[in-house]
Amino acid sequence: MFIRETTTTNRKTGKVYAKHTLVQSVRTPAGSRQRTLMQLGGLTIPKKSWPALAAELECRLAGQTELDLNRVKRSVAVQRAADKVMQKFGARAELKTDNVRRESEAVYVSVDLNSVTSSMSRNVGAELLVHDAWRLLELPKLLKDLGLNAAERSLAEAVVAARMINPASDLKTWKWIRNQSAIGELTEEKLDNVGRNRVYTIADRICGFHEKIEQHLRGQFQALFPCEQQLFLFDLTNFYLEGQALGNSLAHHGKSKEKRSDCRLVSLALAVDSRGFPLFSRVHPGNVSEPSTLEEILKDAGLIGEQPRLELGTPTVVMDRGIATIKNIELLADNKISYVLIERGARNKNYLKLFRNAEKDPTFTRIERDGQPDVFVKMVDGQRDGTVEVLCVSSGKKQKEQAMLKRWEERANEDLLKLQTSIRAGNVKQLEKIQRRLGRLDERYSGFSKRFQVILVPETEDGKRIKDLSFERKPFFELPAEESNPLLGSYVIETPRQGMTADEIWKLYMTLTRVEAAFRSMKTDLGTRPIHHQLAERTTSHLFVSVLAYGLLASIEYRLRKAGDHRYWKTVCEQMSTHRHNTIILTDDKGIVHHIRQTGAPEAIHLDTFRKLKVNYNMFRHYKKAAKRL
Question: Is 137 inside any structural domain?
């Protein structure tokens, strides 16, 4: 066997194109002839490697797994070229086999083309991806072992799919399963006649096993997508509820992450790993103190307590500064748990002089993002024994904080001017009322009293009536007025981990964005907010379905990234929505009406997604003779 090259020239552009074929010489009664075995396309390996590639392909076509090393020297480039050729050859062979099979199974009838129509059109593109992820994580087997029957397992899959594809209320989910989606045709049992009340209760059913389901998912994630970097990224967020939710014991007013102070809240503590896969979750009342949630989730994880049960070993805990109180840092240290965090409080004030010239200081390491030096880091000895601290200054963060500070000061200044005008006009004179209005400003603008100095001019000797008010801005750290706050954009990362550089520690801490991305996906892509449930049990079930749906979402996005595709689930879902499952109705020349239930041919974007995720998109095909036209 040998490789032949043939060239063609484009008459308009003059560009020369090369095509390669694998050729075999054979003897025939008419003499020696050459037979083409494979089309190789355009080869990129040098010509001197063609004999080795021909020998490699010869062995593979013969079913051999190893070459005779005395005959030809193998190289990585040759093996990769052979892999590429064989992959295309296998696809062509499979297509040829399918064509032969289809021809042998073909059924021909004469059809009245004017009678052809379609019915029962349902979305199936995104549903096929969810169904594949559901089975890849072996959730049907787990739910069966937990005692759920086929109908319950099917409905659980459909409800989770609805949360991923069409997040809405339970009533709209029920309508979506019955009237819009083909998910009920993919599950173990058909869901075309599922009752509305069953949709309401299935979430409660699976939430009763949330610890076992999360344990199963942790094992599956590690088995399917092995990772040696053991991180425990922990954070807490809250979701707002619609209505008064007076019967919901979890619903309380608190500090809303989404500035919805008008609504009652419920909190969710979530831990994910370095890839963004969910590890543990726990629901808390909306007014829970963030730092108090850490100990409970560490006990759930088995990192502290008498019976450790974390399957993934002892990871490094990375958490947000809102949770990193001194008490929690001591909790981690006492239990010999490694951590990477920013302590709650203004630790950066201790390094004012260093931060003041950080961007010009050569001892700071520059980290580029988007081709620009954005972060400057420097390692120093930690204030706690056995720890190190990394001083960080982010140019992007500095610009953002400067804009926020400017907007904050402008609004506070406007409110002070309004109060000053009211006092001078004589509308407000009483000291008690003025102090009350200043108190509201102090509540509205955090750090107001530290940034502004307010002077009241009394009108009477007892000081109970005020005739004027003046104010001025206090300088930062007694710096010149023209110099901005040097601590803007700065923060201090603390860790007991030794043997790492400053930029490595910074990158480790920045993995915390994975849990932030998880919350963002749950709130936007999965439509977890607002919560309409009036009972605490239903609220907990609602949030657990979102965590379970996020686990499937994360696995799909992770597999796409491994295939070089960085689309988010929302984009994938929108693009796959045009792939549909239909019933084709037609009448033959004998008046018999035929119904064919099948999926449409996938478009290019659908096919690309299916292949990257290795999803079998060839759904079942149902055919029946429905009736005979009178």
Answer: no
